[in-house]
Amino acid sequence: MLAKIIHYLCFSVGIGGGVAAMLAGIRAKAAPGEAVPLLRGIQKTLGRISFVAIVLLWLTGVYMVYAIKGGWGGLNAFFWLKIAAVLVLTGASLTAQYFTLTASKRNPATMGPIMAKIGMTASGSAVLALIFAVIAFS
Question: What radius of gyration do the chain's Cα atoms show?
Fold first, then answer.
């Protein structure tokens, strides 16, 4: 039960953090110059928190597959669609983290639209993962 609680909390943190980071990015575009570093810092922190949440989602999810379902066998197609969406989410999150860590080597003007697309991909795949999970386990 604890794994399931952690799993759901991490999903909530990941979705909430992703949406909040997107909103901070939108606000940063129109913010006065002195506010931009603060908003970008908030985005960066939210991104890191969301990434940790994804790692915990993987750990608790794999644990629950074995503890509750007895392994990977017998899981339905919607479960595997959920896993595909989670893989896209994980890839987007890893890419965002990489770009954030290497930001000093990149042109900030070109990274904004790229990071926005990564954020939309991550959010969309997270929503799909949730929908497929609900169907898979109903």
Answer: 17
Task: Count helices and strands (H / E) in the chain.
Answer: 4, 0
Q: Which of 81, 102, 94, 98 is nearest to 121 (CA)?
A: 94
> How many of the other CB atoms lie within 10 Å of CB of 21?
24
Q: What is the pLDDT of residues 20-45, one digit of tens each?
A: 988 998 898 889 989 999 998 999 89
pTM of the model: 0.90
Measured distance CA(84)–CA(33) in Å, rounded: 40
Helical segments of the chain, H only: 2-30, 36-69, 77-101, 108-136
| pLDDT score of 112 more than 90 | no
Gap between the Cα atoms of 44 and 21, Å rounded: 8
Sign of dihedral through CA atoms 50, 52, 56, 58?
positive
Cα separation, 55 vs 77, whole angstroms: 23
Give 70-86 pLDDT, tens digit per residue: 999 999 999 999 999 99
